[in-house]
Amino acid sequence: MTMSQLLPDKLVEEEILCRVPATSLKRLRATCKLWNGLFNNRRFAKNHFDKSAKQFLFFMLTKEYRIRSLSVELKGELGLLDPLHSVQFKITHVFHCDGLLLCTYEGYHRLVVWNPCTGQTKWLNHPVSRYKGYITNTPGGNITYTLGCYEDKKSHNSSYKILRLVEWEKNQRFEIYDIKSDSWRILDVNPDCILMYNHSSVSLKGKTYWFALDEKELDPVVLLVSFDYTTERFARVCLPNPYGIYRIMSLSVVREEKLSVLLRRRDALESEIEIWVSNPIDEHKVVSWSKILVGDEPRLGLCRGTSFLVDEEKKIALCCDRGICNQDTTKDYFFLYIIGEDNELTQVDFGASSTWQLHSPLLFNYVPSLAQIQ
Question: Mind telling me which residue stretches traverse the membrane in this protein (predicted)?
Answer without folding.
Answer: none
